Amino acid sequence: QVQLVESGGGLVQAGGSLRLSCAASGSIFSINAMGWYRQAPGKQRELVARIASGGSTNYADSVKGRFTISRDNAKNTVYLQMNSLKPEDTAVYYCNLEGSGYGYWGQGTQVIVSS
Description:
single chain
């Protein structure tokens, strides 16, 4: 079993910054990629950013230039630095781990951006 523990969410004013962290632990045999998804009320869960084991990244168009995903392989931890936050970034943010034939989700952390 794999556990993903997220932290760093909260309430911030528009234009502010937050840093999310997600630490993976447990029976981790291999990690293909880790990423962050978000789900706003009444909307589907969407990819925010993803980083593969080799370091390649991809971002949703809506966050390019504002969010940065990074990873500490030794700690099995992924980070999401969120700058210039907008009210439309308000959502529950979920950490995701992609393994070989399996995937895991964190419990989610709330981000609220006030205007």
